[in-house]
Amino acid sequence: MSAALLIEQLLNGLQLGVMLFLIAAGLTLIFGVMGLINLAHGSLYMIGAFACAAVAAATGSFWIGLAASLAAAAAAGALMEVVIVRRLYERDHLDQVLATFALILILSEGTRWIFGSFPLYLDIPPLLQGAVPLPGGGQYQLYRLAIIGVGIVVAIGLYLLISRTRLGMRIRAGETDREMIAALGVDIRTLYTVVFALGAALAGLAGAMVGALQSVQVGMGEPALILAFVVIVIGGIGSIKGALVGAVLVGIVDTMGRFLLPKLLALALPASQANMVGAALASMLIYIVMAMILAFKPRGLFAGHG
Amino acid sequence: MRGILAASLLGLSLTVSGLAQAEPVKIGVITTLSGGGAGLGVDMRDAFTLAMKQSGNTDVELIVEDDAQKPELAVQIAEKMIQSDKVDLMTGIIWSNLAMAVVPNTVAQDVIYLSPNAGPSALAGANCNKNYFNVAYQNDNFHEAMGQYANKDYKKTFILAPNYPAGKDSLTGFKRYYKGELAGELYTQVGQTDYAAEIAQIRASGADSVFFFLPGGMGIAFMKQYAQSGVGIPVLGPSFSFSQDVLPAIGDAALGVKNSASWSHDLDNEANKKFVEAFQAEYKRLPSIYAAQSWDTANLILSAMSKASVKDKDAFRAALKAADFQSVRGEFTFNTNNHPIQNIYVREVVKEGDVLTNKIIGTAFEKHGDAYAEQCKM
Amino acid sequence: MMAGLSREKTANIVLALLLLGVPLAAVAAGEPFYVTLATRIVILALAAIGLNIALGLGGLVSFGHAAFFGLGGYVAGILATHAFNGETVLFGLPSTTSMPVIWLVAVVLCGLVALPIGAISLRTSGVYFIMITLAFAQMIYYFAVSWPDYGGEDGLSLYVRNTFPGVNTAQPLPYFLVCLGVLAAAVCLFWLLRGSRFGAALEAARQNTTRLSAVGIAPFNIKLVAFVISAMVTGLAGALFADLNRFVSPSMASWQMSGELIVLIILGGKGRLFGPIAGAIVYVLFEFALGGITERWQFFLGLMLLGVVLFARGGLLGLVAGRARHD
Predict the structure, then answer these.
(1) Which residues on B lie below 8 Å from A259 (Cβ)?
(2) What's the confidence (pLDDT) of residue C4?
(3) Can you give the pTM of this predicted structure?
């Protein structure tokens, strides 16, 4: 195994992690501020992907599609918040689970109603096609590097937003004491809608960017949702920093597990059996890691407000 | 409560004929009409109902239900169709794992099941059944064909498939006929959507070709990422990832890929021309292989109905086994285990105008059966 | 309050009568399928009652109970398959098609698996507990998918339904009655637990962990016992479900299944004796009736569930009987 391949696989893990961060950031933000478990977050991700694919197909431009995905997911998020989610903040987590589970069913079938049963087409924009050379002789795909870049920008942006702006100050205040912030005269209802729309837009952005790599189809949101939950639980619910660390950890563990486990097992087992057992173990690996982390740090790596 | 149930039952019966006669043949169709895999089921159902409609046969009553790609739900619907609707025949299931859930218990109750897709090896060998007819293929067939075809040009193939039974059947089938060396063999996660790690290994392996079996969204994701990565090693696969239902989603990345199937829309025979024209006229899209297999299933049933009464099971089974119908796949007969003997073609993905589709470039096998038939004692 | 409780009792009696009466009527009317549908309701209700012990009484929201449901199913499937082929199971242990033996194995195995899972998971609480139970269930799910010996993703078919002494289980009605008997026993178990000192301690552990510690009872142990019992009941339901379908597959252990079990409880009314039963009746009938009318049935199922959460707090039984004592 060459060093170049190892570096490439590490980058792949990092890129998968960054992608997970984009989905998880909104989820953890919404939980941190409103205390809401949103199972329908994966559906917002799906809406982003469908909006981007549909608009890109109509206009011929990925970038217009990307803008549309942000707008569509934010609008869907705001609508969801105003019509339904708003009524759930005071309920216990169970009611939230049931209501947002119902939303998954509605949004999935609704999307299929509008866009039909067949997967949609979305490709990476011409500007980001191709690869760049890596030190050590390998090369890495430009689009995946761009995803890593977007992830870093979003992470910094969120950090600045929360620590430096008035909105961020209100979000922080909302996390610690909801009555207090209402007493200070902040319109908490608007604040919640804005935060929910922001989280939704991040999910939509992730959906659009991932849609260019994967298949834009109904049901794409749920596997992403489960992984995002794993990420925010490892990181500590409500913590943006935790989501970033958790996401990169999950991305790298998953990628390196798929890559290295069959090779390690091949030292002890016949080749085809090693492949099978290795693949089986790799698929369980992130959950094993998550259980181990929670066994020792029951509130995640960066204990938040959960 | 019984009122609700009775009312809903009335709601489900979709009578194809305007004039229901005294004793119509009841066919239960269980297929996937909701969720991510719905495209395949929709094609299956559309072709089946169209074939029945075109035949003008008024003795057929169809009962179509959605299994949502859940095995437990499929089992429940099958029980309902057998016990409550008292269907004579059943068909429609797309996925191997749902077929494994439904078929053994259905045929054990002496109901005839015709598979329009999916042919798990477990049902083809020692556990074959006189009531089970596979009108599609045995799961290994297309992979075997690609193994055979790979011998022509390639000596070092990298192979990968998901880590589940159909995936293992796939790689086993490929290796059964492939004589070259393997550059690598990988099992991926079921439902996996990111293949960067696998593609990096393919690039590093020194392979001269790649064979993959990744149905549904997995295949779309793999093909897009593979093309974007610029690895450029030729790709081979069974038709499932290059069928008419997924090609638009993969886009130009699929151009030039060789894939194996028992059917293609440009296959030159009378029945096929009629089918493709009728399907396009009715639904404004090209049919997929699932539609073709389903069309054949419907016509097989119609041919048997013209020869024997469905109430006389032995005679009807014999009539089915004769396979006396015009298949869109050309020559079609049943093997001793009620699985097809048919040609398997190699197709290439091409662009006709703006539409991505397949064109036949060769024949991998003529009159090909399957490896399990000899274990079948029927 | 008293009026509310008695209304709940009336509702319970009506549900029990429906559950017994409708299948009998169906047999009389020559519609055996509705017996099968009722059996499905009974078994899902049983699984949800198991979960309700942890969730309703102990406040432990397990998002991983499908793991035990699947495990119970695989016990039935594996033992019966080996018996069908005349083989032994691991280490020469005998295989069997006798339901009571299978149930015992399923219950014990689920208890043994739930013990370490519970012990680790209970170190966490709240959303972390929800997610760590999910993580364990996903491990078991992926193990089942990729383990080739028992069918992997394709699952495992039982060619004949297992046997119960003195009952012809191949017929729908006798098998239904067997399942109904088990459900009745589980309802009694839930009722006894809720009224017992153990139940009171569990209630106290749910509401105030520190106060309970102060009087010398370890809340961790009480919750762990509740979690294990809960897993055992759900595992038993899994074994029955495998026999009903004569089929078991990893989808029984999927996270969607865990979600469905939670949905059944909330739909019916959390912590209520008959809540899971009411939930299972409505959910299965809705799925069945809508599935026949439109292929968009999941859309309308979602709308119904949403309606229940928003407008029927305390679930369907809560709607009938008013808010419960412990809501």
Answers:
(1) 197, 200-201
(2) 52
(3) 0.88
